[in-house]
TrEMBL record:
PROSITE patterns: ABC_TRANSPORTER_1, ABC_TRANSPORTER_2. GO terms for molecular function: ATP binding. Residues 18-249 form the ABC transporter domain. CDD domains: ABC_DR_subfamily_A. Transmembrane segments: none annotated. This is ABC transporter ATP-binding protein. InterPro entries: AAA+_ATPase, ABC_transporter-like_ATP-bd, ABC_transporter-like_CS, P-loop_NTPase. Keywords: ATP-binding, Nucleotide-binding. Gene3D superfamilies: P-loop containing nucleotide triphosphate hydrolases (3.40.50.300).
Length: 267
């Protein structure tokens, strides 16, 4: 079992980085998030776990402010989600890497760095930030390789490096380890914990791989547009009498199914 220390003391007053109350999202004809209440604490790694289609990406899009038809209250770093001042404070990596195939790794990062921090006076700082981001994601040996010639996992790491450029306070990462080999997955999880512990970043990371849950400080377990649990891995295992988070998740799913059956039969 891994035990991670959470980040350094934060200047905040205990207000969570993200606070959702009655968060509801409608996509097309369907309500895909059903009146969710949850928080994401500062300076920690929070995992958003659940099966494919349960609403993880939709929830993340709501947090970063790119999702339409969101109702309820959703506060992010002290502002309503989508507030313009949040743009430079949040790093968001989608499931599809957003990189230019005809540019090298460094050129991709130089391009995004110039948008974030423009002007000739910032050139040295940009260079430093780009080099740091490339090192963070372990792509120093591929700096001059065209993104189009990288593997899927390497391209996702370029996307992650772009998100790290502005040293964001909140990183929202949608399945960042999908398709990566075990060594890279381990290294990336170490990076996530370093970002939380040493830079005080808050990370919200989705995954449908339950063993990744064990690597998080806190977990939001989702199923069918609902939050089944918002707790630490230890508390979840203890509460459900399970040895693994996967066992705890299955226990909670069974309990939720049984509760909805009881509700239906008593109607
Ligand atoms: N444009 C749309 N219209 C209607 N329903 C949609 C639309 N887009 C997504 N959905 C539905 O919303 C639900 C949540 O989708 P979402 O992409 O958030 O799930 P997810 O948990 O991130 O899945 P995955 O792990 O496969 O990426 C899914 O059941 C999906 O079918």
């Amino acid at each position: 079992m891994m035990n991670y220390r959470s980040g350094p003391p934060r200047p905040d007053d205990g207000t969570p980085a993200v606070r959702a109350r009655d968060l509801t999202v409608v996509r097309g004809p369907r309500t895909v998030l059903h009146s969710l209440d949850f928080t994401v604490p500062h300076g920690q790694v929070t995992g958003l776990l659940g099966p494919s289609g349960c609403g993880k990406s939709t929830l993340m899009r709501a947090v970063v402010g790119t999702q339409a038809k969101v109702t309820g209250t959703l506060d992010v770093l002290g502002h309503p989600a989508g507030h313009p001042t949040l743009r430079t404070r949040i790093g968001y990596v989608t499931q599809d890497p957003s990189v230019y195939d005809d540019l090298t790794v460094r050129q991709n990062l130089d391009y995004f760095a110039a948008i974030l921090d423009p002007g000739r006076a910032a050139a040295a700082r940009r260079h430093e930030n780009v080099t740091r981001a490339i090192t963070d994601v372990d792509l120093t040996t591929h700096t001059d390789v065209l993104a189009g010639n990288l593997s899927g996992g390497q391209r996702s790491r370029v996307s992650l490096a772009v998100a790290l450029l502005g040293t964001p306070e909140l990183l929202v990462l949608d399945e960042p380890t999908v398709g990566l080999d075990p060594v890279l997955r381990r290294d990336l999880w170490q990076l996530f914990h370093t970002l939380a512990a040493e830079r005080g970043a808050t990370l919200l990371i989705s995954s449908h791989v339950m063993d990744e849950a064990e690597r998080c400080h806190r977990l939001l377990l989702m199923r069918a547009g609902e939050i089944l649990a918002d707790d630490t891995p230890d508390a979840l295992r203890t509460r459900t009498g399970s040895e693994t988070v996967e066992g705890a998740f299955l226990h909670l799913v069974d309990a939720a199914v049984a509760a909805s059956r009881t509700k239906e039969t008593s109607r």
